[in-house]
Amino acid sequence: MDPGTTPLGKMLLEEITPVVMVLRTPLVEEACLKNDLSFIQMLSPFCTFSNIDVPVRTSSDQPYRLQKFKLRLFYESDIRQPNLEVAKERLKQVITQAGEKDNSELCSDPPPIGSESEILPSWFEFFNKELVRTVSFSDHEAFDHPVACLLVVSSKDEQPINRFVDLFNTNKLPSLLNDGAMDPKILKHYLLVHDNQDRSSEKATKLLTEMKNTFGTNDCHMLCINSSQDGQIEHQDSLWAPCKSVASPNQHLGCLLNIDDLNEIKDLMQELSSKHIIPYMEQKVRALNQQVSATRKGFRNQIKNLWWRKGKEDTPDSPSGLMYTFSSIESQIRVLGDYAFMLRDYELALSNYRLISTDYKLDKAWKRYAGVQEMMGLAYFMLDQSRKEAEYCMENAFNTYLKIGSSGQQNATRCGLWWIEMLKTRDQYKEAATVYFRICSEESLHSAVMLEQASYCYLLSQPRMLHKYGFHLVLSGDRYKKCDQIKHAIRTYRSAISVYKGTTWSYIKDHVYFHIGQWYAFLGMYDVAFTHLLEVLTCSHQSKTTQELFLREFLQIVQRTGKTFEALKLQLPVINISSLKVVFEDHRTYASPAVASVRESLWRSLEEDMIPSLSTARTNWLELQSKLLPKKYKESNICVAGEAIKVDIEFENPLKIPISISSVSLICELSELDEMTSDTSHSATELWNDEHKLLGDMSSDASLFTLSEVDFTLGGDETKLVQLTVTPKVEGSLRIVGIRWKLSGSVVGYYSLESNLGKRKTAKGRRKPKHSPGNDLKFVVIKSLPKLEGFIHSLPEKAYAGDLRHLVLELRNQSEFSVKNLKMKISHPRFLNIGDHEDLNLEIPDCLEKKTNVEQTDVPADSKKVSHGVFLFPEDISIEGERPLLWPLWLRAAVPGTISLYIVIYYEMGDASSVMRYRTLRMHYNLQVLPSLDVSFTISPCPSKLQEFLVRMDVVNKTSSESFQVNQLSSVGWQWEISLLQAVDAIFPSQSLIAGQALSCFFMLKSLRKSSRTEEKISSLSRSPGSDVRLAPEGNKDALFDICCSPLADFHDCERLQQHELSNQEDTNTVDFILISRPLKSDINPGTSDAPRLFSHHACHCSTASASPISWVVAGPRTKCHDFSVSFCEINLRMIIYNASDAVASVGINTHDSPGGNVQLSDGNTVASGNQAGWHSLSPVDDIKINSDVLGSNVGKSQSPESVSPFIWSGTSSTRVQLEPMSSTEIPLQICVFSPGTYDLSNYVLNWNLLHVNNEENVGKTKQTSGTSPGYPYYLTVLPSD
């Protein structure tokens, strides 16, 4: 690549070029100003030559041709070092003007991250040039020293020849010529300017002849201008484009200059350059080169120079170094190098820069040394040689300038800019950005521009360094703001948005958006400020103080405008679309909002026995309507006119500070029935995109539907579920489009539900597969239908286990049309039971008391009309108008825990023309059941008495504060009879059970079962009265409660079914108990009703069976007197055997005579078999007084094995009988006693076996089918008679 075509090469070809000093009279300027141009401005477009084609020969004999060339023209007053403050003000104007030009871009979107040509501001190049020019005309650099002087006099001036002489007066010349920094003997060229508007060309010609005679023919020229007579000539804009800002509004630049004038100016500058300035520079270079070669080049001259400079190392450092005049060899070498550089002989320039660099370094003239190093680096670059050497020279120059201090700061900036362009040319953007950062000064505006340019270097580096790009843009914008360059600050921050938008760099992103919004508001651009501040409202990661600042600034900007803003992207509060729940009523209606949250599958399981055809229910509802609907509405939901559609959605405050939300409502569209059939309505997406319709005035049309409005306040980090409703009034198609709300009463926010609904996961429920989420917001509105409203009066939220209450169900129908064919089903009949209509006015406990004057008879098991668990209301019942239907319900808190009661009521429309044939009312209640009395029973058979059992009841009061009074214990059914074993006062000494108390008591239970099971089966179809035991205190005259009447009997049936499923036992030898208690009146909670309360506790399937199904008892005398002197004693006994199983039993009795079996008192208290358990009646021998000598002689005697047994079984030694199920038989026994004494008659064994004859299906369920049982101890005392 040709270095001359690079940005740095072009800059050097423009900035390091020969300078021509212009000395002119006022009349010259006056003539030029007729064109709104100064003299230099008029000539400037013709000072740049792209193909001048001039041969040049410098140090070598081989010439080269110069193609590109430029002259820089300056008035003598401008050839001086610029004032630093003035230069800064000029730079500030450049930046300000650049900001004003970009004003139109402030409202546009942020620029994308693209190539350098797309994003790099165009004014950077102009700014950098102006920055370079702040160090022009330095005394240590020759390329800014004038090469020639152009003296210009007007033909209207008096004595023009004398004016030429006066112009070069030393008092007016620049200080560079007067102070000896440069040679005052420079090339002079004389120019006479003639204004053709004066019509005196002959005078001008004479003056030119006089000038040539005085100053020489080749050095004098005449220039005629303003040849146009009408002043209407227009030139191309690019000719004097840099001067356009000073043009008069009514004139064009160069309006009096015709084409001949322009050609004359062009020829003048061409001749001045090619025939005067370039040859002059060429001759001077050759002369200086010969002089330098003679004095400084060669080994001898170099040694001589070093020897002469020896000892200057101790010279103290000076910022400007030693003073060098134009005649010093060092200055001449520098002029030689700079002239060679301007004539494009970079080899010659570089060799002279190297030569002089050592001298300046030894002289510690650091500024001159840095300047030479700088030019060496540029020469290396233009030669396209040794990149490493070029960068080394630039860095050395840069560091040397900085070492000098403040006097070298501006030179360091220029050096840095050239170094940066050098690095950019070689694609070293990262290193260029580092140099930009190093040339940042303490002055904020200068630093802002440098940081911004550094940011673009990071963007253009490979790979892109986006974070550094954005961060340096922010640093730059912050400094622009400090210098009141608001528009530039906005521009840089807007560019940073493209970096941070969509990233997780939240804090810097908030900083950028917030300050852009503030700055736009400062400029009065409130709409754009509003848009940017919207982005920082949901800054949940920020501190509370910062959040308050952001929100306050946002609201203040809105208030300044005095109007209400509408925002499509208002994110405060945050709407949780995943929480969206649409509740509407088609054939399913809800008694309360909580009912709608219950799983649809649960309701379906309850309704499957009530609804005629659940699978085809949809077609049944809309069999008529579906024929009238277009295809696009087939998947829409169904709702009824006049019934509200409820939308539940969560509003979340992401901030730590409270916010006020008001006027929250839905955005809806309703197409009437005729529009639906024409199928011309727009889609919801089109509706949302139609900004005019949405934001204009999309308010509720009172004739079509009504909307609810909600106001609320969200605390810090608070989430609130809000319910919004829309109630359609006419038939048609309804769409819910979005949500509208107002933040702090001044900003209206909109949220599109349809566009965001697809982002959430499909919720479970009744939605069909492949169902679009947007269909949840589309409804077909049908005409008004009757709707039942239901409520259960006096249903408590908490109750103790066993609590029995009377409730009333109230059903209302506000419609003028009636409903009929009512059905009802309850999910937990164990807790809630449907009563008869006659029970409506009953009160507990009076309705449950036994009627003493009426004979107790069997009550039918269930007189209510129930089918598959569905209660059918009487067919003649219909509900309409203001007359409600009241129906009794019974509640019993069965078991502790939290119970959800679900109730479904089915009803049909009385109006046959209704689109829906039926509807259902769904009701849901939660009941918390607390523990009360824990009741358990243990039953043991009595061996001394058949079909009698000892019952132990354990009661524990598990409440924390309640005390209970136990009223009665009942056994259920005619088969059992229960009785007390001790007085009531002994069982309940305190007459109540206080909180936490436990108690155990005993009862005797007697079985009254018949032997025939057929009678039992028949009797089980009716509810027979049971046996009751009063447990109330003696003075209590309360009547007993009838356990056979409803609702006690109904709840007991449910308990039997439930406990049977839990126990999973098939034993028929079971008994049910019901314990009825009442809370003490003094312990009733103050907040509850004082109405009497009753508690029932049911224990079902309590087993009475022992390990053996066969039980028996030996009956006979216990004491007998006999005269053994006459004969032995015969005693008759009988054994009663009972079969408690469901099978025929074969029982065998085997008796054994064993010697020494008499008087076994010590072993008589021991139970001989594991089959015998529980309580056994024993006759204590110690209470029997025997005074007989015979007894005394026999008791305690050990008998020999050969002695005769004192008694023998005289009957059959082995007997076997068969027993029918649940039957008993009696077997006679006899023993012969040979001597007085007390005898244990347990030396027999029963062998039993269950036969599979009559009841084979139950045999397999019996636990044990055969066994052997030893005899029970039976003590007989035989006394001798007197």
Automatic annotation (TrEMBL):
<dbReference type="Pfam" id="PF12739">
    <property type="entry name" value="TRAPPC-Trs85"/>
</dbReference>
<dbReference type="InterPro" id="IPR011990">
    <property type="entry name" value="TPR-like_helical_dom_sf"/>
</dbReference>
<dbReference type="Pfam" id="PF24545">
    <property type="entry name" value="Ig_TPPC8_1st"/>
</dbReference>
<dbReference type="InterPro" id="IPR058541">
    <property type="entry name" value="Ig_TPPC8_1st"/>
</dbReference>
<dbReference type="InterPro" id="IPR024420">
    <property type="entry name" value="TRAPP_III_complex_Trs85"/>
</dbReference>
<dbReference type="Pfam" id="PF24542">
    <property type="entry name" value="Ig_TPPC8_C"/>
</dbReference>
<dbReference type="InterPro" id="IPR057651">
    <property type="entry name" value="Ig_TPPC8_C"/>
</dbReference>
<feature type="domain" description="TPPC8 second Ig-like">
    <location>
        <begin position="802"/>
        <end position="921"/>
    </location>
</feature>
<dbReference type="InterPro" id="IPR058538">
    <property type="entry name" value="Ig_TPPC8_2nd"/>
</dbReference>
<feature type="domain" description="TPPC8 C-terminal Ig-like">
    <location>
        <begin position="1117"/>
        <end position="1243"/>
    </location>
</feature>
<feature type="domain" description="TPPC8 first Ig-like">
    <location>
        <begin position="601"/>
        <end position="749"/>
    </location>
</feature>
<protein>
    <recommendedName>
        <fullName>Trafficking protein particle complex subunit 8</fullName>
    </recommendedName>
</protein>
<dbReference type="Pfam" id="PF24544">
    <property type="entry name" value="Ig_TPPC8_2nd"/>
</dbReference>
